[in-house]
Design goal:
By secondary structure, the protein is of the alpha/beta class. It contains 13 helices and 11 strands. The N and C termini lie close together (about 10 Å). The model has no long low-confidence stretch (mean pLDDT about 95). It binds zinc ion (ZN).
Length: about 325
């Protein structure tokens, strides 16, 4: 990789070409997209998942994504599929086709823009056997750098017994897993004021972490490494509560061998918190070696200038460099 200033591990692309192709075959999508200059107004429904808003043009147009990655700072992006297109509630045939096509495209784009982008694979987790097959193809054959999955699979928490074989394979391949909120909990009570995102997203990440820690999964699968979106949701702030619960409640000790703090070694946290003091707290709470830069590009809930967020912190230069570059290189084995 040539000279660059940062690595962004939380950013998304929507493979419109693949969706247009799938929409001719399957009657599950409604895409209303209007490009206006560098932005796009989108109204998308995929099965039961809906999203509308204004996003940066790079959501749909890969050349724009590349241009935006070089505008102010040279940022290498490790891209994952937009979570509105996880497809977990759709028929496995459709999801399988989507992910195969997405991973093939990811491999092509990684080759074409070698110095600027890498990709995380997507997998149809509603069918763990198919998901494992696609994971192996994407990591071993296509050379993708990680895998992005939801914080649950349409309501199934990540400790669900059917998902265990997927985690066993991810552990064997030693591939980092990006956990992105989707199908968030308490949706019926979060309908208004965009609370599904503002509260639902960090809530669901917190549920995912609790399910992974207390299930004992991490005692058996010691290679597993997770990147948590949006600064780890509510988990870092409530770590003391996790810890206290472990000491006083039998339910939490049933499977996990250690108390929650021990399992921090399995988790990395992005920087998308929109609050300097919260980010300083996160760094102190989990350690700077566990923080990696994210932007949530191209969504309006992300950072326009994720590098400036780190640069504005009062941290020693080597710590900034860890967060901007080094931690991501180590985790995703980029060199
Ligand atoms: Zn995101």
């Amino acid at each position: 990789m040539s000279d660059y200033e940062a690595i962004d591990v939380h950013c998304h692309f929507f493979p419109i070409r693949i969706f247009k192709k799938l929409s001719k075959k399957y009657n599950k999508f409604n895409l209303d997209i209007k490009s206006e200059g560098d932005l796009a107004n989108i109204r998308i429904s995929i099965g039961n998942v809906r999203y509308s808003g204004t996003v940066k043009g790079g959501f749909l147009d890969f050349d724009k994504l590349v241009k935006d990655s070089l505008t102010k700072h040279k940022i290498i992006r490790i891209i994952s599929i937009a979570p509105i297109s996880f497809f977990y509630e759709l028929d496995i045939e459709i999801a399988d086709e989507l992910y195969r096509e997405f991973n093939n495209l990811a491999s092509e784009l990684s080759e074409k823009y070698k110095d600027i982008v890498s990709f995380m694979a997507g997998i149809p987790l509603q069918d763990p056997s198919k998901a494992i097959e696609e994971l192996k193809r994407a990591i071993i054959d296509l050379g993708l750098k990680g895998v992005a999955i939801g914080t649950n699979v349409v309501g199934k928490n990540l400790d669900h017994p059917t998902l265990r074989k997927f985690f066993i394979e991810a552990n064997r391949l030693n591939v980092p897993i990006f956990l992105h909120p989707a199908y968030v909990a308490a949706k019926s009570r979060l309908k208004r004021y965009y609370l599904t995102n503002i509260i639902g997203n960090p809530l669901d990440t917190t549920i995912a972490v609790g399910s992974l820690i207390f299930s004992g999964l991490l005692d058996q699968l010691s290679n597993l490494k997770f990147v948590l979106a949006h600064g780890g949701g509510f988990f870092p702030y409530q770590l003391g509560r996790f810890e206290h619960g472990y000491h006083v409640r039998e339910e939490t000790k049933f499977k996990a061998k250690q108390s929650p703090k021990y399992y921090l070694r399995h988790f990395y946290f992005d920087t998308i918190l929109h609050d300097k003091e919260a980010l300083n707290f996160l760094i102190r709470q989990v350690g700077p070696e566990k923080i990696i830069m994210g932007s949530d590009y191209p969504f309006d809930m992300g950072y326009d200038n994720p590098v400036d967020v780190i640069e504005s912190l009062e941290l020693a230069g080597n710590i900034k460099n860890m967060i901007l570059i080094e931690n991501a290189i180590k985790l995703f084995k980029l060199e």
